[in-house]
TrEMBL record:
Entry-linked Pfam families: Wzy_C
Keywords: Ligase, Membrane, Transmembrane, Transmembrane helix
Transmembrane region(s): 12-33, 39-57, 69-86, 98-114, 126-145, 174-194, 201-218, 247-267, 352-373, 385-406
InterPro entries for this protein: O-antigen_ligase-rel_domated, WaaL-like
GO molecular function: ligase activity
Membrane topology note: Multi-pass membrane protein
Organism: Anaerostipes hominis (ex Liu et al. 2021)
Entry protein name: O-antigen ligase family protein
Keyword flag Transmembrane: yes
Top-rank taxon, per record: Bacteria
Major place of residence: membrane
O-antigen ligase-related domain residues: 208-369
Subcellular location: Membrane
Amino acid sequence: MKKVNSHITKWIIGIIICIYFLQTTVFARMLEWNLRLEMLFYITFLLWIPFLWNLLYTTKGEVKYILKNNWMIILYFTVRCGSLFFGDFSVDQNALETIYYEIFGLIIIGYYSLKYIDNLNSVFKVYIFLNLIINILNIFIFYAVPKGVFAPEGGVVLWLTKYSSYASFPYASLYTNSNGAGILTGMAVVLAAAVFKKRKIFFWLYCTFSIYFMYLVHARSAQVALMVCGIGYVLMQLSKKKYIIKIFVTLVFVACVCMTAGLYGVVYKNSTDISKVEVMNPIEQELNQRSTGRYLIWKYDINTNKLTDFWGSGSVINSQNKRKDIFMKIYKDPVRAEQQRRQMMAFDFHNGYLGTISVCGVFAFILFLLILIKKVIQMDHEKTDYWLICACFMFVVNLFECQFLIETYVYSIILMLVLNQQKNNYNIGNQVSDI
């Protein structure tokens, strides 16, 4: 029965990952927008099947152990649910869905769902294979279209014109976003390092091709994250001590939080007059240029946070709408402020740490950080090395993109799967760390 449970759960997780991966490609554009959102939402309920089944047959001692070791998660959701009653935002569908996705990431993708799974290698191989196939097609299109391989009026060119991103970034035309293409590929590379223990020629060819693709799409967030992971990999090879990579990843995580805190300091220092938020000194201009325009977005959102309370905004969309308050102070014109708000709706926080503070509030943000650190520290020693490098990749990426649970993408699902998988979860004697 345990094997059947394990196989069914793996199939469910594999389906969820495939659906969420395809959402990042232009194939999703062939579906109506609301249908796509509903599909992403309802597909997650599949994982409730093994979760509730295993919960139904749990023991009293097991429940006590799990609750005791997950008091921070309980406190986190107490705060988040409290925000629905005490927060300065309307409790709408966006706020409720945000909390649901947090429950999905922190609870449903956890102990009871993964109880009988020794590893998720087969699931991650599906993700790696999907990413590789899409990248090969991207490269083929990138070189084939200019050479006239496809007829100008043919079906392929017409499809690319209608659905693809070829006009914006021909090197990643089958993805909806070039940065996303780089992150998806970088995550696949670090997953491959964890999944494939034998380093044969095909593994190195795959890594070479994937890194070339990341270079081609100019996804600097993924490139920086992969370089940091490379440092961790070298340290892991030089040291025979298992805990060295845990220390490294923890330090990287702390450094990411400190950099976000430093960003707050710079913005606060240069925002004494909110009406002049868009006026930047030479240092700010350099930061804005180096971050390809992200600094100004961060400046808007950090100043918007000043106008929110302890409980956060409730959802990403609420935070984006609250930007209008800043634009009103800048332009003193409601029409122009509304136009700017609508224009900026295309941009999220571009920083997962900043986004979590904005949406969840300061106290919930601190709890979320502690939960992640606890997961890193309590990971099974046999899974620590390469799997923690996968987590490290996402910690760094979130300095540039908002990929934590408040905006659930395939990356955030994989992050939680990596941090939550344990060996022989069904043996409560092992140090199970997650609900």
